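Narrative of accomplishments. A recurring question from our advisory board has been how the design workflow behaves on a single, concrete structure rather than in aggregate. To address it, we present the structure tokens for one chain from the evaluation set, followed by the sequence designed for it. No filtering or post-editing was applied between the two.
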């Protein structure tokens, strides 16, 4: 990260405290090698110490520095936004991951449980989210309900102290590795769509959960279809009140936008746990940086990434003043998604033939192409750019709402295919 506010004595003291912790947590020569820019040395050290994103998340996740804004009693620091910024800049400086391997847990499930969960749920789940001992996924979207999420059909029917769930989810990222899922299901079909939803914690190993990976154009299977057949969930795993699932889901969705707005999604910059400076990694992909038009584009990307950082900081600061994540989450999510696409398009363009064909052992070209292909999803995942622009039009510009044919109509009475 290149944009930072100036250190005050308080910030300097916190930076020193975190650096001291890093010194104890990392292999002996790590910080010196990072300071010297010795990437090859760091790679060797990483291999010798079996240093990988899971191991690192275990280490930082058991410290209070993985989520400084979370309450102290649940593994955070009850801290302020600037602390998160200081930690991030130190992680970048020492070539460490700035994003948890348990992104959906730390970014989405954790904040939702902190806001809506019971004390028992917070106690049970939050620390294992931070340490990545338990990976989380998000079971919201369905084949017929994505942008119009509140129209979803998966049914949850109460049976004593349990709920019986039937339905199908899709696009469920990393479900195949997840211990738990944030599940949104319809508990009452006889009220309008937003009012009949409940939010559950689903143990992904429960009988009746069938996870089928989908292959995507990058070649990997990042997301899945998840079929739920007579899955039993204890009522103790319900988050929020019965019928109040939409309010909990909105917390998840707003945090998702904030999380996605901050992610660079750049595989070149994240090689097995050693995170190179994202901007430098990007520059390394550009073959001729003396060309004037190339330089002009790079300057523009640099400016845009600064704007992105500042907007994210402003949004985080607003949250720390007690405000809910607001429309700036949508603004930044749209901006980051489109920025990522423009940047990856440019990297492929300027590499000419090497942008589309490469030798089997050319891992840099493969990573560049993977970034380019994966970036197509950025304007869809976490809410499409079109739908987020609708939200901006309504909530920021005050334009009239879209026509809603099902407004006030019981979900069960609405015609659907
Ligand atoms: C890589 C990836 C990972 C994902 N991971 C998850 C996950 O882990 N968990 C999860 O629950 N979901 C996940 N999703 C799903 C994602 O949230 C949905 O894809 C997204 O909300 C869009 O829904 P849809 O695909 O059903 O498209 P649709 O809602 O069917 O939209 C189709 C098209 O119509 C446009 N459109 C729809 N409504 C409007 C409107 N009112 N005004 C203007 N245009 C409109 C959309 O912009 C889009 O172009 C993931 C998606 C991707 C791509």
């Amino acid at each position: 990260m290149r944009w930072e506010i100036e250190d005050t004595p308080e910030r300097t003291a916190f930076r020193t405290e975190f650096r001291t912790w890093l010194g104890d947590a990392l292999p002996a020569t790590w910080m010196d090698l990072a300071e010297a820019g010795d990437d090859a040395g760091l790679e060797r050290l990483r291999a010798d110490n079996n240093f990988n994103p899971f191991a690192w998340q275990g280490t930082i996740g058991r410290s209070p520095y993985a989520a400084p804004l979370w309450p102290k009693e649940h593994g955070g620091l009850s801290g302020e936004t600037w602390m998160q910024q200081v930690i991030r800049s130190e992680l970048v400086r020492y070539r460490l991951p700035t994003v948890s391997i348990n992104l959906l847990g730390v970014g989405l499930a954790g904040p939702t449980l902190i806001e809506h969960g019971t004390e028992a749920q917070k106690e049970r789940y939050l620390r294992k989210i931070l340490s990545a001992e338990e990976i989380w996924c998000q079971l919201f979207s369905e084949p017929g309900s994505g942008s119009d999420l509140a129209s979803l059909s998966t049914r949850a029917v109460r049976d004593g102290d349990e709920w019986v769930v039937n339905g199908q989810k899709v696009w469920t990222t990393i479900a195949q590795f997840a211990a738990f899922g944030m599940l949104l299901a319809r508990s009452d079909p006889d009220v309008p769509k937003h009012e009949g939803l409940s939010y559950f914690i689903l143990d992904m190993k429960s009988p009746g959960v069938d996870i089928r990976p989908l292959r995507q154009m990058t070649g990997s299977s990042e997301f899945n279809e998840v079929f739920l057949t007579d899955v039993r969930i204890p009522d103790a795993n319900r988050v929020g009140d019965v019928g109040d699932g939409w309010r909990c889901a909105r917390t998840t969705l707003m945090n998702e936008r904030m999380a996605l707005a901050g992610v660079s999604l750049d595989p070149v910059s994240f090689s097995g746990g050693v995170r190179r400076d994202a901007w430098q990694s990007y520059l390394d992909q550009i073959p001729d940086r003396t060309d004037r038009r190339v330089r002009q584009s790079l300057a523009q990307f640099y400016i845009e990434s600064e704007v992105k950082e500042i907007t994210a900081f402003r949004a985080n600061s607003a949250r720390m003043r007690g405000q809910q994540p607001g429309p700036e989450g949508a603004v930044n999510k749209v901006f980051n998604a489109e920025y990522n696409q423009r940047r990856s398009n440019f990297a492929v363009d300027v590499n000419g033939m090497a942008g589309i064909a490469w030798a089997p052992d050319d891992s840099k070209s493969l990573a560049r192409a993977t970034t380019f292909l994966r970036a197509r999803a950025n304007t869809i995942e976490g809410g499409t750019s079109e739908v987020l622009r609708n939200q901006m039009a309504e909530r920021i510009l005050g334009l009239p709402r879209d026509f809603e044919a099902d407004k006030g109509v019981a979900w069960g009475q609405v015609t659907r295919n």
